[in-house]
Inverse folding.
């Protein structure tokens, strides 16, 4: 049976499986300090896992871990190069003693900057400006201000809080929504009452049973016609067909979407051609140097693992996210 750090296995010289797609983690061998690295892709992971102490999920878009998990006979620790862990929350891992950690802290500021960027793009009508420029068409318009507007940010973790700080600094009135009420945070049960206030609804929550399909036709119906939706969390937070219907009917004014139910977004999706929609390919947190930052975080946790000290970003597997500042700063 898999065991957690500090219980058997080899912490001083661990064997680590690394799940990757085309690109491998940069300079990982330099950070491994003698640990044995076994690189695997989706089709070779099950053959690679036996005898491994740890798994570094570099390809965090892969679903291969679930199928290969029965082969993880000595696994003690799984780390993912993402903030979301929904692809790893399956019974075999959740019910085991294996410790799961994520890459919380790497994406907070970049994603907050992305959200501020699309809020400004909508308010200043930048997509239309670029379309008119392509046609060499001079058309004067009035645009909107953002100072004093209301942003409802769903997700009170580090990413949501970074978004709230940046939007507040830009002059917006921010309502931060979390799983339960806390100081400065509204509980998720208050969301329906907050939606009619929102000029911008920002989704930055983890994907859990509670948040799946959170923005459906009923919730969209509570938004005002001038509201815009920004999703940087997970595609499944939104019932995409309901969102398409609301956009097409003009029941909301627009959407900026970085995540989708199916990725890559299919070429025949109506979202591509909607003038009030900004589509980006799951890149809101990916700024220059992000891959190096992910490897450095893993390397720090690897040093902690080998020393037998608490790991950073330990996920509460029952909840599906990190609770508190476990194991040091993130």
């Amino acid at each position: 049976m898999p065991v957690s750090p500090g219980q058997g296995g080899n912490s001083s010289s661990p064997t680590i499986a690394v799940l990757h797609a085309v690109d491998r983690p940069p300079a990982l061998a330099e950070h491994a300090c003698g640990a044995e690295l076994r690189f695997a892709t989706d089709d070779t992971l099950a053959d690679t896992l036996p005898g491994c102490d740890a798994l570094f999920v570099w390809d965090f878009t892969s679903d291969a871990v679930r199928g290969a998990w029965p082969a993880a006979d000595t696994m003690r620790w799984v780390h993912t190069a993402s903030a979301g862990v929904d692809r790893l929350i399956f019974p075999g891992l959740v019910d085991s003693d294996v410790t799961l950690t994520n890459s919380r802290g790497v994406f907070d500021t970049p994603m907050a900057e992305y959200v501020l960027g699309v809020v400004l793009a909508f308010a200043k009508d930048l997509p239309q400006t670029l379309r008119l420029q392509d046609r060499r068409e001079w058309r004067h318009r009035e645009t909107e201000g953002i100072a004093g507007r209301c942003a409802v940010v769903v997700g009170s973790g580090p990413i949501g809080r970074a978004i709230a700080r940046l939007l507040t600094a830009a002059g917006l009135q921010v309502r931060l929504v979390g799983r339960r009420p806390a100081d400065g945070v509204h509980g998720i049960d208050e969301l329906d009452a907050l939606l009619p206030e929102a000029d911008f609804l920002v989704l930055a929550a983890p994907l859990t049973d509670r948040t799946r399909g959170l923005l459906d036709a009923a919730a969209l119906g509570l938004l005002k016609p001038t509201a815009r939706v920004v999703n940087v969390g997970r595609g499944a937070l939104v019932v995409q067909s309901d969102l398409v219907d609301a956009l097409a009917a003009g029941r909301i004014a627009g959407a900026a979407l970085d995540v989708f139910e199916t990725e890559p977004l299919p070429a025949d999706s109506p979202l591509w051609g909607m003038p009030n929609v900004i589509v980006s390919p799951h890149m809101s947190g990916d700024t220059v140097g992000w891959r190096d930052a992910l490897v450095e975080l893993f390397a720090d946790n690897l040093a902690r693992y080998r020393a037998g000290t608490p790991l950073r970003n330990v996920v509460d597997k029952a909840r599906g996210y990190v609770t508190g500042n476990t194991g040091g700063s993130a």
User: Anything to note?
Assistant: The chain has eleven helices and 14 strands. Residues 326-330 have pLDDT under 50 and may be disordered. The longest helix spans residues 290-307.
